[in-house]
Amino acid sequence: MTQFILRRLLYTLITLIGISIISWMIITQAPGSPIALTLDPKVSPKIIEQMEKNYDLDKPVYQQYFLWLQRLFTGKLYSFKDGRPVLEKIGERIWNTLLLNLVAILIIFSLAIPFGIFSAKRQYTFLDHLGTFGAYLGISIPSFWLAYLLILGTVNLFGYPVLGMRSFVTEDFTKAEIVLDRLWHLMLPSIILAIHGIAALSRYTRSSMLEVIRQDYVRTAKAKGLPEETVYYKHALRNALLPIITLFGFLIPGLIGGSIIMETVFAWPGIGRLAYQAVLARDYPVVMTINTITAVLVLIGNFVADILYGIADPRIRYG
Questions:
Q1: Rounded to 5 degrees, what angle do the CA atoms 312, 224, 237 make?
Q2: String of b and e for 262-283 (b: at least 16 CB within 10 Å)?
Q3: 127-148, pLDDT tens digit by residue?
Q4: Alpha-carbon span 80 to 59, nearest angstrom
């Protein structure tokens, strides 16, 4: 098992280096320049040249990459936009994004797996077809469109703001009201962020359960008179988890990518919204650092999925 983990760690490190190099090439070669967005178009060419030197934009691309990498590890990386340390800007917001994604993951797994098992137990019934329709609708519906609809509907129905992490006026709130206010602002973006994951994972769970419950050992367990819940949740689900574990590695990049949209729509102060603002400003250090952190989170998700896969099926460790 140790050799398996070390091999996966090596693959993860190599992948991360490759992602950072490709991302840097794409970002720096994209149209637009941070200089053009910060200076007047009529400014003197000498000032533009000096600004490029200040930002190290006059150096070759590979030198810019190594300078960014060096400054990232030494903590001396500064934003083009406001001159603040990049890690400080990200540190102020990353926990908000992680909270949003953690709640979304909890919602996905707490709802999708029971929905999938329920649908598998009632294969080809009206409820199964209704669940299939709902899953396809959840996968195909644009999340930003649904977010705007729910914002309008929620505000019109309850008359309570949903943008940001909290209400603007909370001075007169009790501690309980402050907690409820935070939960109110957290739940709507988390639910919308989780919809695609619930739809996909419930279908995976259903398919995996249908395959497992046709096995002889499940029929034997039923023939012994074991309770239906024991057969499905203890015997069948344990062996149906392999595809679900695989999907866990793909959920994280989808959630992080969706965070950019949800945080922008809901004015949620996370790194997704910061990334959107940095892209508009061509703030290369911020964009690259957020991209690298996102890649690390995605690779950690895949790494955890690989380890869980190896635990669930020991044959994979020697693959």
A1: 25
A2: bbbbbebebbbbbbbebbebbb
A3: 888 988 988 888 888 888 888 8
A4: 16
Check residue 133 and give its pLDDT: 92
Q: For the domain 2-318, what is the CATH code?
A: 1.10.3720.10
Q: Where are the domains of the chain?
A: 2-318
Query: 10 Å Cβ neighbour count for 191?
Result: 17
Distances (CA, A) of 296 to 273, 291, 293: 18, 9, 5
How far apart (Å, rounded) are the C-alpha atoms in residues 281 and 37? Answer: 7
Counted residue by residue, the chain has a size of 319
pTM for the complete prediction?
0.78
**d(C-alpha 6, C-alpha 2), whole Å:** 6
Confidence (pLDDT) at 158: 74
Q: Render 170-188 in DSSP notation, one character per residue.
A: -TT--HHHHHHHHHHHHHH
Task: State the average pLDDT over residues 74-93.
Answer: 85
Convert 103-151 into a string of H (helix), E (strand) and C (coil): HHHHHHHHHHHHHHHHHHHCCCCHHHHHHHHHHHHHHHCCHHHHHHHHH
DSSP 174: -
In Å, the largest CA–CA distance within the chain is 87
